[in-house]
């Protein structure tokens, strides 16, 4: 990192000096890294810095290194910058996000300086979750979706999620399931035509939630694919990131009941002008559609992925059959 970016970190925190503690992770396909820095001479002891540097050569772990993929990633960092500039302040403690201390663009680099969630009450990461922790994340999603219900996603993705059909033509072309391939546009249309649009996180997998030590509070990170959409996209994707096919089947009703309980309470407390029961009916019907939408992407992107299982295949068959009946 050059001196200009280091000076941004120092200025934004009031520190006298900084030092690198650890590299937390590399960004997807070699587009930079996330690093924890220690601070000297100020009240904060550390910050987390997301430093985007465009690679000289793209090296996608699954071989998807096309120009379309590159342009999508570039735009995703512009979206994330806009999210923290314009929208993140609307999130309260019920849908906690990291405070952004500084944003800087220079040439082909982007710098984002965040509070260190490890130091502010969210030090835990989970590779698996119990039912309490599952519900904690679903409550975060419900509050997030209620907060942005009816908002227009200015400067974000018009349609959020990293697997949105319009941005994933390469994977759609590679899809060998012809019934699902032919239904893809109708599936997307069903989700986009819901009258109840909100913001979706767009990559609400378990790895993007930071937990309190007791697992009863979370903060979410990684807003590269935040944008407009039906909240079921986040919910289906999140549940699928946590559970195997048997647990998806067994817990589906219980988890959706809990999510909608939280959603309705928050919509009412925030005095959103929607009929909460009608929202629930519409979105419940769209849950299998949202699940199938991601399943469509996954089968084209990585046909051997562990998430392609009998539960997903059953939902997809049912959704495709229902769409056929509508035509």
Summarize the structure.
With 327 residues, the chain is of the alpha+beta class.
Q: How does this model look, in words?
A:
The chain folds into 2 domains: 117 residues, Phosphorylase Kinase, domain 1; 205 residues, Aminoglycoside 3'-phosphotransferase, Chain: A, domain 2 (Alpha-Beta Complex), CATH 3.90.1200.10. With 327 residues, it is of the alpha+beta class. The longest helix has 26 residues. It contains 9 helices and 9 strands.
Provide mean pLDDT, rounded. 93
Tell me the quaternary state.
single chain
> What is the number of helical segments per DSSP (H or I, 4+ residues)?
9
Total domains = 2
Counting DSSP E segments of at least 2 residues, the number of strands comes to 9
Strand content: 15-25%
* CATH architecture annotation of the largest domain: Alpha-Beta Complex
Shape descriptor reads: globular
CATH domain fold name of the largest domain: Aminoglycoside 3'-phosphotransferase, Chain: A, domain 2
Spell out the helices and strands N to C: HEEEHEEHHHEEEEHHHH
Distance between the termini: 56 Å
- Please list the strands of the largest sheet in the order they lie side by side: 1-2-3-5-4
Overall helicity: 40-55%
* Low-pLDDT segments, ≥5 res: 60-64
CATH class of the largest domain: Alpha Beta
CATH homolog superfamily of the largest domain: Aminoglycoside phosphotransferase (APH), C-terminal lobe
Q: Characterize the main sheet.
A: 5 strands, antiparallel
Radius of gyration: 20 Å
Structural class designation? alpha+beta
